[in-house]
Design goal:
homodimer; alpha+beta; Phosphoribosyl-aminoimidazole Synthetase, Chain A, domain 2; 2 domains; six-stranded mixed β-sheet; four-stranded mixed β-sheet; globular
């Protein structure tokens, strides 16, 4: 087993951008982009909580980056760089580390980001990972989750609920013949770099489930949101699992799609901004007690037992 | 047990600075200080690795902040704000959280820093914490650990080895009648805000033990360092433990004092910059195979079994 410094030199230093100083200093140093706001976010992934012990190390690495990238996407921020902390139990060896670093390298190239620092530690039993991301926007252009106005439409990117079903498939509780749902659970596609500033008045990424995250938008704006369940975009693989999975799909986490509050007049601009990314109008915001109401095709409110993914 | 969002609102949102948006958004947003370099560092603290299960929550919080502040101190950076991740097992309740938040609040005031974001999760069994700190310096003024030149003197702040002995006291292996050593282990004093730019050519904080961290300075500069053991500043409490503790004191971690490479002509400026902070010349850098040599009072090299704290 290589020691901490050998590991850093072998696996992580090659991933470092200039600000990372070869991961050989006490901290990263960089000159921030001129006349830009900085956007910072952090997210962790823990074995047994956010991933399964036997998940592939490269996919764990990529999902860690993508979860954070999704938070930047929800602010309409351009990603720049990240810091990484790892706590690894004694049984983790070179094979795992090589795959983990390869996953980081792959998504660094995919998203044009660089590692600039971090911290590594041993752990007693479980793998514990976190990343802190730095992004940037034009001054004042970061999109809050709280800015919805009455009359704004509610839009969502991509399809909703695939990852929740994919997790069930990974746990052996659901048959996923195409592997699509499993893939959506293992490797989300953050909606980064959509030019939504000036178009969306509020945005949030669906990490804890559509209902819960929409609830945050409603609380933040002091508004009600009404969603027509039939309009919620569903992948063919999710649709094939039948309507009994609706609750799972709307309350399961890990979608990493964006919910957007958009004034109706901005629809053409929204469609142009999203380009080839699927975007679907599923409801609207209105005055009323803050909260999300999901209507079935008869216009009745659907009530679910839980609203979404929570940590204690 | 309060849920994740209630906990954030109750314990962490009151600690948030403006950039943190009440911890209610997907990310922090701020306009970086004009014409400054940004300095970023991250450090974690894990139960059973970096602290003991029964350590007081407020001291754990403060040490987490201070470990990171020490990294900023080693770059001569001014601290600005931080992001926090917590992973807490189910048995952690309101009492622990209240004490933890109180510790954060105390050191936020002490060091004039603000919480601006974070992530909270459950964990299976152990507490896992990390913080990412943002600081700033004048452009190009961050001090690297690699900049020592032949002929530079080696200086160290404070006293060395107290925390290593304090850890032994906390484990019941050593009698610490005054409690001084224990306190130095539980609550380090990062040497933040010393105006060392233009005075020190290299700096590192002693987190892994003097010998190991000095070794990093030597490797980075491609130089040898010679240290006279008798010159290494020792607190009265550490001295009372006798000379047999020398190896522990020089290889134990958690001192969070600074090692500095300073040209001899800068000694008056160094003393002025350090003000009331104790500063001691303990050796010098010279051409030679990169590495640290510790000499006893007869001029013989001391050989130790281990060089410092490492994670695997």
């Amino acid at each position: 087993m290589a020691d901490e410094f050998t590991r850093i030199a072998k696996y992580f230093a090659p991933l470092a951008g200039e600000a990372g100083r070869g991961l050989l200093d006490d901290a990263a140093v960089f000159s921030p982009p001129k006349n830009r706001d900085l956007v910072l976010t952090t997210d962790q992934m823990l074995e047994g909580i956010h991933f399964l012990p036997n998940d592939a190390a490269d996919l764990i690495a990529r999902k860690l980056l993508r979860r954070n990238l999704s938070d930047l996407a929800a602010m309409a921020a351009t990603p720049l760089s990240y810091l990484l902390t790892t706590a690894l139990p004694p049984h983790i060896g070179d094979e795992w580390l090589a795959a983990f670093a390869a996953g980081l390298a792959q998504d660094q190239a995919e998203y044009n980001i660089r590692l600039i620092g971090g911290d590594s530690s041993s752990s007693q039993a479980h793998i514990s990972l976190s990343a802190t991301f730095i992004g940037h926007t034009a001054p004042g252009a970061a999109i809050s989750r709280n800015g919805a106005q009455p009359g704004d439409d509610l839009w969502v990117t991509g399809t909703v609920g695939d990852a929740a079903l994919g997790l069930q498939a990974r746990l052996g509780k659901l048959f996923d013949p195409t592997g699509f749902l499993t893939q959506r659970s293992l490797l989300p596609s953050p909606r980064i770099n959509l030019p939504l500033a000036g178009i969306a008045r509020a945005a949030i990424d669906i990490s804890d489930g559509l209902i819960q995250d929409l609830g945050h938008m409603c609380q933040g704006a002091g508004l009600a949101a009404t969603v027509h369940a039939a309009l919620i975009p569903t992948s063919p693989a999710a649709a094939a699992q039948g309507s009994k999975t609706l609750e799972s799909r709307l309350t399961g986490g890990d979608d990493y799609e964006l919910l957007l509050a958009v004034p109706p007049a901005q629809e053409p601009a929204l469609r142009a901004a999203c380009g080839s990314v699927q975007i679907t109008k599923i409801g609207f915001f209105s005055p009323g007690p803050p909260g999300a109401k999901i209507l079935d095709s008869d216009g009745n409110s659907l009530i679910f037992k839980k609203t979404g993914w929570q940590h204690f």
